[in-house]
Write a structure and sequence with these properties.
single chain; alpha+beta; 3-stranded mixed β-sheet; globular
């Protein structure tokens, strides 16, 4: 059975990777909860891109007025989505067949 990760961004969190699957009673992952990117068998470039995207995601929230609309324009939202799609594809390639990475952004 492959190792399972969930991919999604969360405010206040510096990684988009979480052990899973959802509902798993044993989320005592050796990779942390959420996952510590340095513990995963991925390239430094992939790790840096996931960190960059997690940091960038934080700017999609108006921290002074969290219930309000996002300060991002539609173009910024689309650009982020494309970059996250590319990072997810690279992550899956880095991890290989022994890993299942579930896209939980939608």
């Amino acid at each position: 059975m492959p190792s399972h990760l969930r991919f999604f961004f969360e405010y206040g969190v510096d990684t988009p990777l979480w052990p899973g699957p959802p509902g798993d009673p044993d989320l005592d992952s050796p990779y942390g909860y959420p996952c510590v990117l340095e513990t995963l068998p991925i390239t430094p470039a992939t790790r840096n891109e996931l960190t960059r995207l997690s940091d960038l995601y934080q700017s999609s929230l108006d921290w002074d007025h969290p219930a309000g609309p996002s300060p991002w324009t539609r173009d910024q939202q689309e650009s982020f989505r494309r970059e996250a799609d590319a990072a997810l594809e690279t992550l899956r390639r880095d991890l290989g067949e022994d890993w299942a990475v579930e896209d939980r952004r939608h």
